[in-house]
Amino acid sequence: MLEEVRRLMSQVPFQPFTIRLTSGQMVAVPHSDHIMVTSKGLVAVEDDAGYIEFFSTLHMSSVRLQGASV
C-alpha cells in the first residue's frame, strides 16, 4: 500500500487520489504538495482549507484515483 501511495505522489502529471483508512474515513489528496510520508510510516495530508490529517500507514486499507469507480 505504501509503495502505491508513493507512486501516486510522484506521478506526472499528478492525479488526485483518495486514501481509505481502516476506520472507513476517506482522506483526499488533491495535489502532491498536500501529502508527506515519513520514513517511520507517518502520513500527513493537508486539505484545501489548511487542516492536516495525520495517520499511520498501518491504518491505510485502500487507495484509489479520484473519479475512478469503486
Enter the CATH topology name: SH3 type barrels
Tell me what portion of residues adopts beta-strand conformation.
35-45%
- Count of helix runs: 1
Provide the residue-averaged pLDDT.
Answer: 92
Distance between termini? 17 Å
Radius of gyration: 11 Å
Low-confidence stretches: none
Q: Which oligomeric state applies?
A: single chain
Record field, number of beta strands? 6
Q: What does the main sheet amount to?
A: 3 strands, antiparallel
Outline, from the CA principal axes?
globular
- What level of helicity do the residues show? 10-25%
CATH architecture classification? Roll
- The helix/strand series, from N terminus to C terminus, equals HEEEEEE
What number of structural domains do the residues give?
A: 1
Strand order, main sheet: write it out. Answer: 2-1-6
